[in-house]
Amino acid sequence: MSRPWVGGLLVGLLLLTACGDPSSGPEAAATPSSPGTASTTHQRPAVTPGASAGADTGGADAGGAGTGGAAAERPAVLYLGDSLAMENQKVLGGLLRDEAKARYTSAPYSGTTLCDYLEGTGEDSLVPPKDKAAALVRRLRPDFVVLQFWGNAWGYTPCMDGITYDEERDKYFARYTADAGRLTDQIAEAASGARIVWVLQGPDPITPDRVRRVNAVYERQAEASGDLLADAGKTVSAAGARYTWTQYLPCTAYESGHGPYCTQPGSGRTALHRDDDHLHFCLAPTTSTPKPCPVRSPGILRITRAISRAVGQAVTPAAD
């Protein structure tokens, strides 16, 4: 293994473990207003792993308000994932409530991958049994389960049994494919009618082809099970360079009109990442006690809008 690769792995591992506690909420200002809508002023707290996940359902309780006719009016959305989902969760909740009138629950855990949310991975998992995907789905009866996983590649997650991208690439992708199928099956068995939204990831600054193949796993699984895709990664990629990492992109019209989102208005470009963190999209420094992103961050807004749009289009399909 070359020295640059080792250095990249160590930096990435530190970054992946830098976010993890959804109990600490960001400032209210971190949730943007949607174009044409007022900002969310009453943010319900995100679910805290270790507490009852029903705390943030906004009405979707164990009695099962989701997976039914209510989806057309107020869909119930469950958001699961790793550190990227952790930093996104407050902003996504605000957008889904504004744009889709959704009842929203989030329960991400940092450093995780698909197997952590599988039932049956108990002690070898970073997610406790009560917060496994199927357990939450049985309790909350969501209409949509949004899954956002960058694809832990370094063996940090115990349930991956030491399988890493660098050492065993074929085995890594085979395991990831199998886990995507198992997770889909467990969610389907927990609540018939719940649709998964697989979030496609942005460019990987260290191993570009890895994230391309992880996204392909999601695409194949969504096609096989009739589920949905949200290409959030495209919104943080340069035009014509979907899998080439970049720290800056041209400001969108919305970003240019909303000061903090266009970080370099003089040059018409905005920062997606901090100089010291090429993986996450929160422009605030990482902390020893991680939390959802506390500042307006263009990359997070782009990603969450893509997810919210995918849910909204599924709730209200475009006319033929």
Given as residue ranges, the uncertain stretches (5+ residues, pLDDT < 50) are: 1-31, 33-64
Helix content: 25-40%
Strand content: 5-15%
N-to-C SSE string, H for helix and E for strand: HEHEHEHEHEEHEH
Termini separation: 53 Å
Mean pLDDT: 82
Rg, please? 18 Å
From the spread of the alpha carbons, the general shape counts as globular
Number of helices: 7
How would you characterize the largest beta sheet? 5 strands, parallel
Number of strands: 7
Q: Order of strands across the biggest sheet?
A: 2-1-3-4-5
Structural class: alpha/beta
Structural topology:
Layout: H1 3-16, E1 76-81, H2 83-100, E2 103-106, H3 133-140, E3 144-148, H4 169-190, E4 195-199, H5 208-225, E5 228-230, E6 248-250, H6 253-257, E7 269-271, H7 298-315
Parallel strand pairs: 1-2, 1-3, 3-4, 4-5
Antiparallel strand pairs: 6-7
Helix pairs in contact: 2-7, 3-4, 4-5
Key structural traits:
globular, 32% helix, 7 helices, 320 residues, single chain, two-stranded antiparallel sheet, disordered N terminus, alpha/beta, five-stranded parallel sheet, 7 strands
Structure description:
Helix 2 crosses helix 7 (298-315), helix 3 packs parallel to helix 4 and helix 4 packs parallel to helix 5 (208-225). The N and C termini lie far apart (53 Å). The protein is built from seven helices and seven strands. It has 320 residues and is α/β, with parallel strands linked by helices. The protein is 32% helix and 9% strand. The longest helix is centred in the middle third of the chain and has 22 residues, at 169-190. The strands form two sheets. Strands 2-1-3-4-5 form a five-stranded parallel β-sheet, sandwiched between helices. A two-stranded antiparallel sheet has the order 6-7. Residues 1-31 and 33-64 have low confidence and may be disordered. It is globular.
